[in-house]
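Troubleshooting log. The previous structure file for this entry was overwritten by mistake, so regenerating from the original sequence record. Sequence copied from the archived sheet and checked twice against the printout by T.R.
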Amino acid sequence: MAAEGAALSPENAFATDLFEGLPKRYDLLAEVLSFGQNARWRRELVDHLAAGDPERILDVATGTAGVAIELARRTSGQVVGVDISEPMLSRGRERVAAAGLERRITLEKGRAEGLPFESGSFDAVSFTYVLRYVADPEATMRELVRVLRPGGVMASLDFYVPPRPLWLAAWRLYTRAVLPTAGWVSGGASWSRVGHFLGPNIEAHYARWPLARIAGAWEGAGLAGVEWRVMSLGGGLVMWGVKS
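Regenerated output below.
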């Protein structure tokens, strides 16, 4: 079992600080600022895990528990959600209670790089918006796969960069100019800060970690049949695979 209470990496600490002021309106603003696409991407992610009706599911970077709640609604299993942000988890617990799913969903503090669970503990693992906020994506993938049982399914969701020049130009205009302003108007300084950060961060991440390299990291961690779907003209990426 990985050690609990390990010090946050600089990447973890930055992510924690970045999202500190967002929980109260996070879900509404995430939908507004993604033109409603976040919900579509989330459903695609859950589709790949719910198909096998897993009994025990881990949702990493659960945030305000949006994926965890949908997983509980779409399966009969128990869901454990972990996140490094206590304010996000607090908001998540409120949402879980409002959904009447306290007996099905447990939320606790934890890091993707050092999960406090025994190897092979889960039938399915999901993670969202994780690899851009860790120091070593390959090591993180190995840790995520460690807690998945052989034959279990893993699926992830993150932003992506549109591959076609026309949509890339529009995406850059939106992320560099529109998103920071829209964030300020709808959510104040905290959301404006996220708006300024996201576009350059997403593009820099995929410059270092193109899709083929990410898929290779999944396979190197022990996943087979790795596939992906680029969604919303290139704005989102859902990836999935099965533990060998």
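The two ends are 20 Å apart (CA to CA). Archived copy saved in two places this time.
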